[in-house]
TrEMBL record:
<feature type="signal peptide">
    <location>
        <begin position="1"/>
        <end position="30"/>
    </location>
</feature>
<dbReference type="InterPro" id="IPR005770">
    <property type="entry name" value="PhnD"/>
</dbReference>
<dbReference type="GO" id="GO:0055085">
    <property type="term" value="P:transmembrane transport"/>
</dbReference>
<protein>
    <submittedName>
        <fullName>Phosphate ABC transporter substrate-binding protein</fullName>
    </submittedName>
</protein>
<comment type="similarity">
    <text>Belongs to the phosphate/phosphite/phosphonate binding protein family.</text>
</comment>
<dbReference type="InterPro" id="IPR006311">
    <property type="entry name" value="TAT_signal"/>
</dbReference>
<keyword id="KW-0732">Signal</keyword>
<dbReference type="Pfam" id="PF12974">
    <property type="entry name" value="Phosphonate-bd"/>
</dbReference>
<dbReference type="GO" id="GO:0043190">
    <property type="term" value="C:ATP-binding cassette (ABC) transporter complex"/>
</dbReference>
Length: 294
């Protein structure tokens, strides 16, 4: 190492060490903030998510006696980074994006999971054009598949694993493209821009119910095994009293209009171990989670 490189490395190290106490101090000061920033997963159009979540904002402000700001980040990656650097206090993560966030911010705590149809699980689906060339999973060979965000569970990891279990490996047996949100995947399948796409079963059903997707033109080809549902996650640096209040506000949530935001009937308690299945699935796919954009 020459002198210039040595000095640069030394200065970088000193800067990092100097910045560390500032980050720690900032997080400590945010242990009981006057305003709570609540991030919602950007799996559909941001303005629609914010509009539909207004009952949630009012409910949390009433329960927690604090101002609440709803946040929808541009993608999964920016949401993970916002949690990592303390720019949000509470987040509604997808299962895989939570696992990625936990890698980068070990102190965050999952505390509640959505329950739908009596279960804290959901499914991913692979959809195709109803009258398109793909009639079976085998027909996906040589085709273009649309996935959502690289850090999405039901719109990337799970459908990709489903295809792998049927002998189809990405880039070897089919091409794929990341399209961002789940609704973008469904629209691309309907338009014939991709021949198959992976997304959440619940989101697909909602898109059809709203008329965003024509149920006569797009059909479900295959569905996954159950996946642990989306977790609510909070900063571990919050005071115990505030964490208890946040946890109770979700576990005791009964309002149907609010729960609709989460496509859930209620919330149950959860912890980090519930998401080990995602880590195991990534290992089966030889997917290095440290290299997943998120």
């Amino acid at each position: 190492m020459d002198r210039r490189t040595f000095l640069s490395a030394t200065l970088l190290g000193a800067t990092t060490l100097a910045a560390a106490p500032l980050v720690t101090r900032a997080l400590a000061q945010a242990a009981d903030p006057a305003k709570l920033r609540v991030a919602l997963l950007p799996d559909e159009n941001a303005s629609t998510i914010i509009q539909n979540a207004q009952p949630l904002k009012l409910y949390l402000e009433g329960r927690l006696k604090k101002d609440v700001e709803l946040v929808v980040t541009t993608d999964y990656s920016s949401m993970i980074e916002a949690m990592r650097f303390g720019r949000i206090e509470i987040a509604y993560f997808g299962p895989l994006s939570y696992v990625l966030a936990k890698q980068r911010a070990p102190g965050i705590e999952p505390f509640a999971v959505g329950v739908a149809k009596g279960s804290p699980t959901y499914k991913g689906v692979i959809v195709v054009q109803a009258d398109g060339p793909v009639k079976s999973i085998a027909d996906i060979r040589g085709k273009m598949v649309g996935f959502g965000d690289a850090a999405s569970t039901s719109s990337h990891l799970i459908p990709r694993a489903l295809l792998a279990r049927n002998g189809l490996v990405g880039e070897r047996d089919y091409k794929f493209v990341h399209l961002g949100a789940h609704d973008a995947v469904a629209r691309s399948v309907q338009a014939g821009q991709v021949q198959a796409g992976g997304l959440s079963q619940e989101i697909f059903a909602a898109l059809v119910a709203r008329g965003t997707i024509d149920g006569a033109k797009v059909k479900v080809l295959a569905e996954s095994d159950p996946i642990p549902n989306y977790p609510m996650v909070m900063q571990g640096t919050l005071t115990p009293t505030l964490k208890d209040a946040i946890r109770a506000s979700f576990l005791e949530m009964k309002d149907v209009a609010i729960l609709k935001t989460f496509r859930a009937e209620g919330f149950a308690a959860t912890d980090d171990r519930a998401y080990d299945i995602l880590r195991e699935t990534a290992q089966v796919l030889n997917l290095d989670l440290s290299k997943v954009k998120g």
